[in-house]
Design brief:
Blueprint: H1 2-7, E1 21-27, E2 33-39, H2 41-50, E3 54-57, E4 62-65, E5 74-81, E6 87-94, E7 109-111, E8 117-119
């Protein structure tokens, strides 16, 4: 029921047809948006049990723990769910850059008026 999802006290993620829910990652220190990824039920369960961010890689079709090769893990301080439980927010303490390009955030470029891209400090 909608009221259970919107007002209830039970976590009931609404995964899409692909079995995924969007995961938004923000820095606990200043609220900066660090990255957006996807989670399936296994990734969410692993995140909740380990305290480190685990996602589902759509390209590799497998779970991946953020920072497993770089060491730039995301220690999860809090997990929130949006009103209809089809997106989660991970509030994290990052151990280094969140982006694989070594930028602090994956959102390090903005679109210019002419449709190009320019790098911005995050």
């Amino acid at each position: 029921m909608t009221s259970d999802i919107e007002q209830g006290r039970e976590l009931k993620p609404r995964y899409g047809a692909d079995g995924l829910v969007t995961a938004i990652v923000t820095d606990a220190a200043d609220g900066a948006l660090l990255m957006v990824a996807h989670m399936n039920a296994s990734a969410l369960a692993a995140t909740l049990s380990s305290g480190e961010a685990v996602f589902w890689s759509r390209s590799r079709q497998s779970l991946w723990r953020k920072g497993e090769t770089s060491g730039h893990v995301l220690k999860v301080r809090e997990v929130r769910v949006d009103c209809d439980q089809d997106a989660v927010q991970l509030i994290v303490d990052p151990a280094g850059p969140a982006c694989h390009t070594m930028a602090r955030s994956c959102f390090y470029r903005r679109v210019t008026p002419d449709g190009g891209l320019e790098r911005v400090d995050s």
